[in-house]
Each structure stands twice: as structure tokens, then as C-alpha cells.
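As agreed, record minuted below.
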Amino acid sequence: MSIRTGRPPEHADHRALPRSDRTRFPWRILLHPLRRPSSWLLRKRYDLHVHGAHLVPTDGPVLLAANHVGVLDGPLLAIFTPRPVHVFTKEEMFDGPIGRFLRLSGQIRLDRFHPDPGAVKSMMRVLRDGACGGIFPEGRRGNGELERFHRGAAYFALASGAPVVPVVFFGTRDPGGRSGSLPHRGARIDVVFGAPYTVPAVPWPRTREQVEHTSMLLREHLLVHLASAKALTGRDLPGPLPPGDLDPDPATGVTDQGAP
């Protein structure tokens, strides 16, 4: 059974802070036509299994929050989520020809090291228009255990009232593989969607303490889903990246020890 949010997008206020009324909705020229052939190609190469897709609300704003293990995570999120999804993508990926492809497929360019109001407004535009956004709270590829958890997912949940759907990837990187490596041909890949987590929308100004508290609650929800996904699939994550292979990323976020 699919989930309906019952929240019509026309109730969104693009003039609320942060304003999104002057921000264009991301292009979708390539997002729709490429999903089906891309799904076919990936299923031909890998033993691919999608679990819990019915848990993604069928209407209204939704934010997907996924662990980040390998280079395939972003494409898998865009292709196998039941709805078209606009995912935050690090700005370094927008260099060269692939950048044009990412723009035309609706992905949102993000500067991870400096305040990026343009990216924030783009995601708010997506959510306020009742569409689906995506974010990797860990900020970079790693072991996928959610040890690092940036505050962005909580901020957008509070700012928009959108339910947050946890997503876990297994098999998108072989054990010992580098961050940019693909899994071996025929590898089993599992994409596991979880139950939505919703917090009431909070009007401007949202305090650091509110975002901090919500981040801790949201991370706990994702950790519970991660444990359930491991039990459901009988899978484990691939472990840490090889030494020296971690992508630079801001040292912010919430962890088991709290927030730095």
C-alpha cells in the first residue's frame, strides 16, 4: 500500500524565509526519460533489489536521507525512488560534461564548504512545490554507518514540514574498494527505503538548538532503519575506505558524542 501525505503543494508559501519565490524549479529534461532505460541497464549489470518503495509518500513534499557508501548511490536514488528526486550533489561533480547532464537531470549543485543560499532555496523550491528532494547526511562516501551526520536534513524537515524517508544502500562498493570504484559485475545491490519520519514545520527563525535536537532524533531514526535493513537483507556494509581515500568534507554535524 502506498502512502499519501494529504498535503497539497499549493498551500506552500514561497515567500516565507528562506524565500524561494524567485528561484527556478530544477530542470527535469533528462530526469523522466532516462529513469526506465537506466533501470534496465543497472539490472542487467547487477543483481539489484529494491525494498520498501511503497513507503515513499506518493504526493506532497518528501525528503530522502540516505547513507553514502559508493559512487552509485546518487544514480540509484534518482533512478529507483518511485518519484523523480532532486538530490544535493557536490559542486565538484558539476565540472565538465557531466555537470550539464546533472543540471538537466534535476540535481542540485551544493558548495559543502561555504554557506550556499542558492542551493538552500533550490531545495526549498522543490519541497514547497510538493516534489521530492534527496540528501546524504554523511556528506561524503565512507563506511555508510552514519557516524557523521550533517544538520541539513533536519533543517529542511523543520523548514518545510516534509517527511524524511531513510534510505540504505548495500553493495554499491566492494569491501576494500575505493570511493570512486564500481562494484564488480553481477554484485548484489540492495536499496532499502524506510518509514517516513515527520517533525512539525517551524517558522523562521529556526534556532540552532532546534536544528541540533532534530538532527539527533533524525539520526536515531536512520540508525534504527539501518539496523532493520541489515536484518531484512542479511547484508552488512563494506567497511572503511582505504587509507587516504576520504573526500574532504566540513567537520560539522552530530555524532554519538554530540555536536562539535
